[in-house]
Amino acid sequence: MLAQAASPADAQGAHDQTEAGSGQRGAVTNLPLPRYVSLKGNEGNARRGPSLSHRIDWVFRHAGMPLRVVAEFGHWRRVEDKDGAGGWVHYALLSGVRTALVTEDMLALRARPNPDADIVAQAESGAIVRLGECNRTWCQISGGGQRGWVPKTAIWGVDPDEIRD
């Protein structure tokens, strides 16, 4: 949840990411692996394997939850959350809209990507926010009607070397 401070598509997410690491691409989509997506609805079953006949190992229950795609098979994507939990999720349950998870409690959102900039809002740990522009060390996030810049190290859902315009 974001609080105001006292003072004043499906592949879209993948196109914004730099190709770091192995440079591997998905066999189905030809998009970079790993890459980040988000959960489209309020619930998504993560299965042991890439079909409806496989057992459900995990259920994601937060719309917009950022997830990392690590593999593809047909209409299925192998995803992981911040803690590495996950499984195979049908692609229709995923969105290319980029979100992030706040990992630092009462995270200060700043007016500019600078540690000395004015604080415009604060975010609680666990808040799911929309991910905007990112430079080498800062990202712009928004949620709850608030918007500001935070250090990349204080959120999950963006790679350390990823630049977003």
From TrEMBL:
Transmembrane portions of the chain: none
InterPro entries, A to Z: DUF1058, SH3-like_bac-type
Biased composition (Low complexity): 1-14
Domain of life: Bacteria
Span list, region Disordered: 1-29
Pfam family, one: SH3_4
Residue span, SH3b domain: 34-97, 98-159
Protein name per the record: SH3 domain-containing protein
Organism of provenance: Paracoccus marinaquae
Lineage, broadest ranks: Bacteria, Pseudomonadati, Pseudomonadota, Alphaproteobacteria, Rhodobacterales
